[in-house]
Amino acid sequence: MDSRSARGAAGHPAGPGGRPQPVLTGAGPAYGRDRGRSRRPGRANGGAIAHGGTEPSPLPPFGHDGTERRIERPQDPLEQTRCYSGKKKCHTVKNVLLINAVLTILFLSDTYAGSTHDKRIADTTPYPLPAGSRLLQDLGFLAFTLDHVEIIMPTRKPRGRALTRAQKAANRRIARRRVRIEHVNSRVKRCRIVHDTCRLRKAGVRDLVMEICCALHNFRVRLMPWQPMV
What is the mean pLDDT of residues 151-179? Predict the structure, then answer.
């Protein structure tokens, strides 16, 4: 799939207060072409990273995380290598989900091979976040920033040293909030078609299935709201 879906998400109309409205983009295979290095301009000085000790912003947070789906082993040796996930110990494809404070999925990234790092996917994804937002992430997105967006992530343990008690307490506070992103991933995968190995081979069908499962999650959250992520 081309990048039409990503452009559509970035240009989606904003809701009250400049916050983006719920968006589901068309996830398409990006692992079949060379993405190269990050193409996001002007990101060196625009973002701020908080490790739990800063004054909280009045805006509710967003969160993002990667999720993998098992696929059959590709026949092409090169694709076998690119799709093999060392974390899952099987062949997978990967997407990044962006959620808001009420745990609605706002954005579904393009589909990448399972060996692609989460940060590399985020670097090539246009996030539809307004200025002044806060974004929760784990250490898999270390060094990822967005212009005019506060990044909230745990403090990494220094090599050969231990974290202080204050840093450990701050990490626990962040983990209690960020775990809601994992809850969203698990609720999307309550559909067996994305939880188990997908054997659909027709072009675009796997990604269409993922979009539908994300839409079903949003539908369930709308009918039975969850406790928000604060």
Answer: 94
Task: Please give the tally of structural domains in the chain.
Answer: 1
Q: Hey, what are 209's tokens?
A: 């299935």
H helices within the chain, ranges in order?
4-10, 77-83, 118-123, 165-188, 192-195, 205-223
Angle subtended by helix axes 205-223 and 165-188, to nearest 10: 110
DSSP secondary structure, 21-76, as one string:
PP------B-TTS---S----S-SSS-EEE-S-SPPPSSPPEEEEEEEEEBPPPSS
Give bridge partners of residue 149 from the DSSP assignment.
133
Kindly provide the b/e burial profile for residues 22-54, where b requires at least 16 CB atoms within 10 angstroms of the residue's own CB: bbbbbbbbbbeeeeeeeebeeeeeeeeebebee
DSSP state of 125: S
Q: Is residue 81, in this structure, part of any structural domain at all? A: yes
What is the C-alpha to C-alpha distance for residues 45 and 145, in angstroms, rounded to an integer?
Answer: 9
The verdict on residue 159 lying in a domain is no
8 A C-beta contact, residue 74 and residue 215: no
What is the rounded CA–CA span in Å between residue 8 and residue 201? 26
In this predicted structure, what is the pLDDT of residue 46? 52
Question: For residue 78, what are the domain limits?
Answer: 4-14+23-33+44-154+165-223
Give the pLDDT confidence of 31-66 residue by residue, as tens digits: 554 443 334 433 434 556 666 544 555 678 999 999
Asked if residue 131 has pLDDT above 70, the reply is yes
Asked whether residue 160 is assigned to any structural domain, the reply reads no
Q: Is 229 a domain residue? A: no
Indicate the pTM of the whole model: 0.77
